[in-house]
Amino acid sequence: MNINFRLTKLNNICSNRENKEIARGSFLSFLFKIAGIATTYVYILLITRLYGVKSLGIFSICLTLSMLFAMSGKLGLDTAALKYISQYNHTKNIVQVSKIYWMTWIRIFFYSTSLAIFIYIIADTIALVLFRKPEILPGVRIIPFVIVPMALASLNQESLRAIKKFGYYSFFLTQSNLLFSIVGLLVLHLFFGRAMVSAPVFALAFGVSMTFFFSQAIWLKNAKVGLPWDNRTVEPEVSSRRLFKVALPLVLANSMNFIMQWTDTLSLSFFCPVWLVGIYTTATKVANLANIPYMVINSIAAPMISGYYGNNHLTKLKILMKKLTVAATVGGVLTGIVIFLLGEQILLLFGQQFTRGVLALDILLLARVGQAIAGPAVAMLQMTGKEHTFKKIMIISATLNIFLNIILVPLYGIEGAAIATMICILLMNIASRFASTKHLHQRLFKEII
Q1: Whole-angstrom Cα distance, residue 247 to residue 213?
Q2: Please, which residues have CB within 8 angstroms of residue 379's CB and are 6 or more apart in sequence?
Q3: By the 8 A CB rule, do 71 and 129 touch?
Q4: pLDDT at residue 180 above 80?
Q5: Sorting pLDDT into bands at 50, 70 and 90, what band is 21?
Q6: Integer Cα distance of 133 and 224 in angstroms
Q7: Of the candidates 294, 243, 253, which has an alpha carbon nearest to the alpha carbon of residue 435?
């Protein structure tokens, strides 16, 4: 009887539609995360072997600035589109999916193009006055050509995520940019040799552009939304004003999230030599291996949370959150232990001087494991109407991160940057977990009453 009961229970778990969706989405995301990380390491190895650690530092600074400006050009609209496209896709309303997508696409194109023109004009000021590093000037001048395709590719990624095309989403998010960049880098090295130290930035521009074109084609093929002028007689149910009302708190929250992720790199760029930025960047990438389970779970969590919450399936949402949190915790802890034991050997692959980042790596690992234990709390807040709560958490965490980096980086270098990042990531995730759990319990209580 006991064996039959267990077999029946196992069969029910395996046949559950939600469990199948989680497993399928997680498996695809996991494969692409691993492939994406492998691509990242190949690109870093190519840069260090072909151009040296200084070139890696230049690339890290320019990549950070490109992401900052692309994020500013999106104004949070890609995340807002994710929310509404998920809800309309859940009810199979393709016409409204099309309306939301193209409304967002046009606005992101306009804003990011305007910003790119402005950055092109002030590129010399950024390199020579703000950072006081003439060696990054050629790379900074290419950044404006990255902003628009990076912003629109982000919209395409989030839209594919919204219609649960997790494989495509994961590929474009984790692998596509650098995969195409590797091709561009090898071609540049073939024609110009080692003299072009900003070649990795030029290759990045090529990679981002290719990602945009391919993601656009994949989205149009899979979503079947048609072109902007199709269904002109149908009015969008979500107005432009409503879209911005959701997007603006998200852009502030995402800006704070960007500050959380990249303040350490920018602080090191101001206070430390370029080569040390390259070492810290590599340590960060290795530490992010422990973040794979969290990223995999988070990538499939948002559209499922939005679908359940938007259709008032709160009990199912509570069960879903428990499942996702347990999966992220187990995966994060196990991966963190492995990276802690092998960290120095992994850094040694990039060169002897990269072992300078071992202690920073260990500190960053603590942050990533803690983030995994908190589960998809951030996605829960963003997808259930608690954008303002998440915004407040991010403002506090990001402000503290800036303050700690200004104090700790001049004193302790890359270890100071790692400590600041660890403290703020743990604070953000603990607060998000508490707020999301409280919000869900309050909604369930109201439903019962």
Answers
A1: 24
A2: 298, 301, 302, 305
A3: no
A4: yes
A5: low
A6: 47
A7: 253
Place of tokens 């008032």: 312
State how far the alpha carbon of 252 is from the alpha carbons of 48, 88, 162, 291, 404, in Å.
Answer: 35, 25, 21, 23, 20
Which pLDDT band, with edges at 50, 70 and 90, does 6 fall under?
very low
**pTM for the model:** 0.68
Q: Which tops the pLDDT comparison, 213 or 9?
A: 213
3-state secondary structure of 117: helix
Confidence of residue 14 (pLDDT cuts 50, 70, 90): very low
Q: For 206, list phi and psi in degrees, rounded to 5.
A: -65, -45
DSSP-derived 3-state class of residue 190 = helix
Residue 339 carries which side chain, given as an amino acid letter? I
Residue 200 to residue 190: CA distance in whole angstroms: 13
Contacts of 49 (CB under 8 A, 6+ apart): none
313: left (phi over 0), alpha (psi -120 to 50) or beta: beta
What is the rounded average pLDDT of the residues 215-222? 89
CB 284 within 8 A of CB 358: no
Residue 321 to residue 300: CA distance in whole angstroms: 12
- 422 pLDDT more than 90: yes
How far apart are alpha carbons 308 and 321 in whole angstroms? 11
Is residue 11 within 8 Å of 277, Cβ to Cβ? no
Instruction: Tell me the residue length of the chain.
Output: 449
Signed CA dihedral, 32, 13, 82, 383: sign only: negative
Query: CA-CA distance, 285 to 41, in Å (whole number)?
Result: 8
* DSSP 3-state of 29: helix
pLDDT of residue 400: 92
Dump pLDDT digits (tens) for 373-403.
887 787 788 777 777 788 788 888 888 999 9
On whether the CB atoms of residues 300 and 426 are closer than 8 A, the answer is no
* pLDDT tens string 128-157: 888 888 888 999 999 999 999 999 999 999
Q: Distance between CA 297 and CA 375 in Å, rounded?
A: 8
The CA distance from 436 to 241, in Å, is 26
Give CA–CA dist 435/46, Å, rounded.
43
Distance, CA of 248 to CA of 329 (rounded, Å): 31
Question: Which amino acid is residue 85, in one-letter code?
Answer: I
